[in-house]
Design brief:
The structure is a homodimer. Chain A has helices spanning about 15-25, 40-55, 70-75, 85-100, 125-140, 155-165, 180-185, 215-230, 245-255, 275-280, 290-310, 330-340, 385-410, 415-420, 430-440, 445-450; strands spanning about 5, 30-35, 60-65, 80, 145-150, 165-170, 190-200, 200-210, 215, 255-260, 345-350, 365-370, 375-380. By secondary structure, chain A is of the alpha/beta class. In chain A, helix 5 (about 125-140) crosses helix 6 (about 155-165) and helix 14 (about 415-420) crosses helix 15 (about 430-440). The longest helix of chain A has 24 residues, at about 385-410. Chain A is globular. The interface of A and B includes residues 272, 386, 420 and 425 of A.
Chain lengths: ~450, ~450
C-alpha cells in the first residue's frame, strides 16, 4: 500500500494531472493520496473532483485532504511538492515593483531562465518553503521520495540535495518539447529517439535519431529551406516556442537545439522589450512577454473556474473536464517504476555525479535515468559542446550558486551583487531602490529580515 | 654564458628596467642581451642607452640589437615578451571607435580587468603576435624560457601553455601593491609576510602577517576608524588605487583585500562613467579613467623623450635618467635563480595544476613559487573563499575562456556573444555596429579576416 502526498494540490497546475494519472494506473490501486493546501476552498475543490474522478474511472484510490502538512506526511512514501509560495499573485506584485525600477519582467528573469514564475534571487520565501517541507519529511517520513516539481527546480533540487539527506528528484515536462519539432518537420514520433540534457529549463538536444539515423540534417534542412516561409504569417500560441526564430537562433549560436522551456530564454537578445520579444517569438511575444504570460495566467484562472463550477455541480461528469487519459507527466509512472519494479527511462533532475562531464558532482543536472525498484541509475551522457558549456551552462550554474548563496547566507549585499551583474541595472541607486521596494512588500517580511 | 632576448624593447615600458637589473646583477656578468623591436629609431635609443649604462656601471653585458626576431632567438636561453601589437596608439584608436558606439573605455574593459591597455576580446592582433613569437621560439630555441610580460598575461599565458610546449612564465608587478597598504597603516615592510593569489590583475591577499601575527585586524581597524578621514581631502596620483574607497569596498564585498591592479577593476559599480570613477578613486578617477589614463600615457611619452634626449647627448650620464638601483622587477632575479641556482620565492603566472583548489589545471593562476636551477615549484596555496570564487574568479575565468575561444575559432559570432553579455550593450544593432567599426580599422585587416 503506497501513500502519496501532494503539497500545493489546491493550485491544480499539477495536481489535476496527478490525480488523473493515479486513477488511471491500475498497478497502483489501493494507493492513498493526501492532498495538502493552505487554501481550504481550493483544497475542497480538488479533493471533491478527485473522489468523483476515481468513482467515474473505477479507480481504487483513497483521496484524503488536509491543511496540515505534517499530518499528511505520516507514513508517506512519496511527496510531490508543487507549491508556489504566495502564489502567482505575489509573484506578479513583486514583478510589478521591480518593473517600476527598470527591471522589465522582474529581477528573477535571467539570461538562461526567463520562465515567468521561476524565482531565482527573489525567491527567499519559495526556497524557505522547500526547506521547511524537506525538514518535515526528514522528521516524519525520512525514507520517502521527494519529487520536486515546483520551480525553481534547478536551484531547489541543488539546495535540497546538498542540505538534506532526502531522496530528491526534480521533475519537469519540458523535455517533451522535441515532439513539436518533430511535428513541424514531419517526423513520426514512434521512430524518434531523442536525448536532451543540461539543467532544468536549459536542456539541449544532444541526440536526435530517426529510425536510428541522425535527424539533425533534416532539422538543418528545415531551418535553411523552409523556416522563413513557416514564419512568414506565423501566429503561434504563446507557448509555441519550440520552432520560434529564437530557438533556431540559439541553435545557430550554440550548436545544439534548445528543447522545451529552454527556448523561452536565451538571453536579453530576445527579451530586452516587448518589441524584441515579438521579433523572436511572434506577435504575442512568446510565453514570457506581458501578453503571453497574461494569457497563461488567464488560462489557469479559467481552468480553475471550470473546476470550481464542476465541483459545484455533481451532474457534470468530472471526466468531461479532466479527460480519462493519462497526462504524460512522469510522476505516477515513476512511482509505478519504483514500487512495481517497472524498469523505464525517465528524464529527471538529480545531482550530476559524473553524468555530464565538466559539471561539478553536487550540481543538479537534467538527464535521462533508468528507474526501477532498485532506484535511480543516471545515464552517463558524456559532455556538452564546449561552446554551450562556456556561454550557457557555466554562466547559468554561477547564477544558481549565487541564488543559493543568497538564500543560505542572507544579508542585503548578495542581492546587490546579483543586481550589479544585471544588464538592466543602470546605476547603484536603481539596484538599491529595487531591493528596498521588494523587501518592503508586506508578504516579504521574513525575507526582509533574512536579507537585512 | 646566458642569452636573453627582449622583444618589444623599443617601448622601454619594461626594457629600461630590465637593462638596469641585468647590468646591476653581478652573477649574470657575461650575459648577452639582444634587444628586438620593429621601430628602428626607438631600438637605437634603448640600445645606445643600454651600452652606455653598462659602461657607467662597469657591467659585463653584451647588448645587441636587431629588428629581426628570428635572428635574435638563435641560442636564446630566455625570451622576455614585452610587446604591445600596434602600440598604445592603435589601442586608443580602437577604444575611441568603441566609445562612439556606447562602450565607455572600449570593449576590452571587463568587470574584473579594467586595465586600459589590456586586450581581452578585441585582442586578435596581440594574441596572434604572442603565438607568432612562441612559434619562432619553438622552431629556433625550444628550450628557452618565455617570460610573458606583455598583457593580456592571464589570457596570453593560458593560451601559450595550452597551445605550445614552451616553458612559459607570466610576470607582473602588481603583487607588490601591498607595500602601499603597509605604508598607509604604518607597518614596517621588513616584518611583513604577504601572500596574494588569483589570476593576473585579479589577486587577493590571502595572508597578511606582521611579525608572524595576522595583520588583517590592523587593516580592518584602519578601514573602520581612519579611512574616512584619510579620504576627506584625498588627492591621489592616478596610480594610487591600493587604498581607494573602491579597494575597501571590494574588501567588504568579497572578504579579502584586492592587491595591485586588482583594485583598478571590481566591476562597473566603480566604472560606469567618469563621475562614478571619481567617487571611488578620487578626483582623477583612478588609473583607468580618461584623465588617469591620459596622465599615464603622458608619463610614458615624457619618459621616452627624456631617453631620446639623453641618447642624443653623450655628456648626460645615463645613470641620471636610469637610476643605478635595481628596479624590483622579477625578471632578472628569476634568471639568476634559474641559472645560478639562487633559490627564492617569486610571484608568477603558471598553469594551476592544483595550486588553487577549484580552478581547472589548465587555467593560468598567479601564485607564489619556489624557483631554483631545478625549475619552478608552485606553492599549493589552498583555496579562495567561496564568495570570491563565485563572484569574481569564476566569472573572470569564463571571460578568459571566451576570449581564447574567439581567438582560436574565429568568426564574427563570438565577438557578438561577448558584447551580448556586456552591460553597456543596449541593443543588438549597437553591438553589431561596434564590431563592424572595430573590424573596419585599417590596422585590423587580418583581425577582420579572422572574425569574418
Amino acid at each position: 500500500m503506497v501513500k502519496i502526498v501532494i503539497v500545493g494540490a489546491g493550485s491544480m497546475a499539477w495536481s489535476a494531472n496527478l490525480v488523473k494519472d493515479l486513477c488511471l494506473t491500475k498497478s497502483l490501486r489501493g494507493t492513498t493520496a493526501s492532498l495538502v493546501d493552505i487554501d481550504t476552498e481550493r483544497l475542497n475543490v480538488i479533493h471533491g473532483l478527485a473522489k468523483r474522478y476515481a468513482v467515474e474511472t473505477n479507480a481504487d484510490i483513497a483521496f484524503e485532504k488536509t491543511t496540515n502538512r505534517k499530518d499528511a506526511l505520516q507514513d508517506a512514501d512519496f511527496v510531490f511538492n508543487t507549491a508556489l509560495a504566495g502564489g502567482h499573485e505575489n509573484y506578479e506584485t513583486q514583478r510589478m515593483v521591480a518593473e517600476k525600477r527598470g527591471y522589465y519582467r522582474g529581477i528573477d528573469s535571467v539570461d538562461f531562465n526567463m520562465v515567468s514564475d521561476y524565482y531565482t534571487i527573489g525567491g527567499y520565501n519559495q526556497l524557505k518553503l522547500f526547506m521547511d517541507i524537506a525538514k518535515d519529511i526528514e522528521d516524519i517520513c525520512p525514507e520517502a521520495w521527494l519529487f520536486q516539481t515546483a520551480n525553481p527546480v534547478f536551484e531547489g533540487c541543488t539546495l535540497l540535495t546538498r542540505e538534506t539527506k532526502l531522496k530528491v528528484l526534480g521533475l519537469c515536462h519540458g523535455h517533451f518539447g522535441y515532439q513539436r519539432i518533430a511535428e513541424i518537420i514531419r517526423l513520426k514520433l514512434r521512430n524518434l529517439r531523442v536525448q536532451s540534457i543540461g539543467f532544468n529549463h536549459c536542456i539541449w538536444m544532444t541526440s536526435f535519431l530517426y529510425s536510428g539515423e541522425d535527424a539533425y540534417p533534416l532539422l538543418e534542412k528545415w531551418v535553411e529551406t523552409r523556416s522563413q516561409t513557416y514564419w512568414k504569417d506565423w501566429t503561434p500560441k504563446y507557448h509555441d516556442v519550440e520552432t520560434s526564430p529564437a530557438a533556431v537562433d540559439m541553435y545557430k549560436r550554440f550548436g545544439l537545439f534548445p528543447i522545451g522551456d529552454t527556448a523561452r530564454s536565451g538571453g536579453w537578445k530576445y527579451h530586452a522589450d516587448l518589441e524584441t520579444k515579438k521579433r523572436w517569438y511572434g506577435p504575442l511575444g512568446g510565453f514570457d512577454s506581458e501578453i503571453g504570460w497574461a494569457l497563461y495566467l488567464q488560462y489557469l484562472r479559467r481552468r480553475m473556474n471550470r473546476m470550481i463550477r464542476t465541483h459545484g455541480n455533481p451532474s457534470i461528469p468530472v471526466t468531461s473536464v479532466l479527460s480519462p487519459f493519462t497526462s504524460g507527466e512522469q510522476h505516477i509512472p515513476l512511482v509505478d517504476a519504483l514500487v512495481n519494479d517497472k524498469k523505464h527511462v525517465f528524464q529527471i533532475n538529480v545531482p550530476n555525479d559524473g553524468a555530464i562531464r565538466g559539471i561539478p558532482n553536487d550540481v543538479v543536472v537534467e538527464v535521462p535515468a533508468i528507474v526501477n525498484r532498485k532506484g535511480v541509475q543516471r545515464i552517463h551522457v558524456g559532455e556538452l559542446p564546449k561552446r554551450l558549456m562556456l556561454h550557457v551552462l557555466i554562466p547559468r550554474m554561477v547564477r544558481m550558486e549565487w541564488a543559493l548563496e543568497a538564500f543560505l547566507e542572507g544579508g542585503r549585499d548578495l542581492l546587490l551583487e546579483w543586481l550589479l551583474n544585471d544588464p538592466r541595472t543602470r546605476s547603484l541607486e536603481q539596484a538599491e531602490q529595487a531591493i528596498t521596494d521588494i523587501l518592503g512588500l508586506p508578504f516579504n517580511e521574513e525575507m526582509a529580515e533574512h536579507h537585512r
